[in-house]
């Protein structure tokens, strides 16, 4: 167990393993899980990178649009690419579409988050 811990400590965090990266799935979590997680990441890091493969691209676009339309985020960068994926170690690579969207906070972000927190507080008091 200690060898594993030491190995993890020695690992370098590459550009692809950013702290503000959310890898979106269209089957594992509900849509608003990603919306709320992205808001938290923007609070902490000022921006968030949403990433998706294949069929999850529609979900990542929807999450980004919800954040933009509600005034929480602005687009900084959108990147599309194709990556080779393997189902098994010896299988042939299969090309998959990938999309990465970098979102940043709007000027009103903190104000909107405070208003949202206040609304939640009032709703809890009523219950």
Automatic annotation (TrEMBL):
Pfam families: Alba (PF01918). GO terms for cellular component: nucleus. This is DNA/RNA-binding protein Alba-like protein. Residues 20-81 form the DNA/RNA-binding protein Alba-like domain. GO terms for molecular function: RNA binding. InterPro entries: Alba-like_dom_sf (IPR036882), DNA/RNA-bd_Alba-like (IPR002775), UCP030333_Alba (IPR014560). SUPFAM superfamilies: AlbA-like (SSF82704).
């Amino acid at each position: 167990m200690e060898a594993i811990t030491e190995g993890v400590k020695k690992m370098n965090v590459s550009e692809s393993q950013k702290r503000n990266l959310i890898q979106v799935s269209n089957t594992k979590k509900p849509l608003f899980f990603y919306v709320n997680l992205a808001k938290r990441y923007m609070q902490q890091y000022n921006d968030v990178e949403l990433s998706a493969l294949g069929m999850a691209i529609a979900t990542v676009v929807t999450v980004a649009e919800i954040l933009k339309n509600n005034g929480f985020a602005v687009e900084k960068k959108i990147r599309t690419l194709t990556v080779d994926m393997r189902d098994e170690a010896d299988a042939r690579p299969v090309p998959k579409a990938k999309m990465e969207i970098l979102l940043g906070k709007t000027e009103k972000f903190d104000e909107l988050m405070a208003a949202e927190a206040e609304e939640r507080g009032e709703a809890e008091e009523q219950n």
